[in-house]
Design brief:
The protein is mainly alpha-helical. The chain is built from 11 helices and 8 strands.
Length: about 280
């Protein structure tokens, strides 16, 4: 049984969600902070910054409900966007990050084709879950070698996302594993330079699904059920799809700029982007 306070919080949250689409961004949220002291507001902002860094370190999504209902219980849910705005100012200026909302995940089972984003009353539904996105300009970022033990993992997921992209943004599990088998990495082979010696490609795929880089979808066909991989919500934030074709050209291209441009167009065509010729 819900308590009266919990029922009030649920009603308040539903009202906030319903008004978000009709209000000037931040208006409702800033008004909600009107009854909160500046000291409490600043404390909530600092706590959100710490909570965001903690979640990112553990590769966990930053959930609005967990923060508002478990960490700053005394503040109304509708105040979150205003707190988020101030926290992002600190994250950008101090750490070079910002909190970006994850897209809503499609259904995971018995899907025949990528389903549309869930909507609520005709508008796109919010996930209310966030991750930290790097906002440091490309020219100011350090070399990837400084990523240390995490570098091989990021290189591997970049390759996987690229394969999914050029396969029309979805790839069957067996096809993906066959690609790695041709590289000498089968289901039981340990991945070179992996953090764990017995870390196989199957282990890696499971980890990427858990972290939100990949979605593993069960697809029913007339013959049998198969599993497909698609870009997960975290990948859509951290790896802009328009950069993937550039990455592939950097790896396989040459000094002929015209040839590189044609390769980039071909890659985008494979992904279903239909670039202008």
């Amino acid at each position: 049984m819900e308590t009266v306070q919990e029922q009030n919080e649920d009603e308040e949250e539903a009202e906030f969600e319903a008004t978000q689409a009709h209000q000037v961004p931040g208006t409702v949220s800033e008004k909600a902070l009107g009854s909160v002291t500046e000291e409490d507001t600043q404390r909530a902002v600092k706590m959100l910054v710490r909570y965001a860094l903690f979640c990112e370190h553990r590769r966990q999504p930053i959930r609005r409900d967990d923060f508002m209902k478990k960490i700053v219980k005394e503040l109304p849910t509708r105040a979150f966007p205003a707190i988020l705005k101030r926290a992002n100012n600190i994250l950008r200026s101090t750490f070079g990050f910002e909190m970006a909302e994850l897209p809503v995940r499609p259904p995971r089972a018995n899907s025949k084709r990528p389903s549309s984003v869930p909507t609520d009353g005709g508008r796109e539904k919010n996930s209310n879950s966030f991750i930290l996105r790097n906002v440091i300009p490309e020219e100011e970022r350090v070399d990837d070698a400084s990523l240390g033990h995490d570098a091989p993992r990021l290189v591997l997921i970049t390759v996987i996302l690229s394969l999914i992209y050029v396969s029309g943004k979805t790839i069957q599990e067996e096809v993906l594993l066959n690609y790695f088998s041709k590289m000498g990495i089968n289901r039981t082979t340990g991945i070179p330079k992996s953090q764990v010696q017995d870390h196989t490609i199957v282990d890696a795929l499971q980890g990427y699904v858990k972290d939100g880089y990949l979605d593993r979808i069960k697809v029913s066909t007339s013959e049998r059920d198969v599993h497909e991989y698609r870009w997960g919500p975290r990948a859509k934030i951290e790896f802009p799809q328009e950069n993937v074709s550039g990455f592939i050209v950097d790896v396989h291209g040459n000094e002929d700029e015209n040839m590189n441009k044609r390769m980039k167009r071909d890659i985008e065509h494979l992904a279903g982007e239909d670039p202008e010729l």
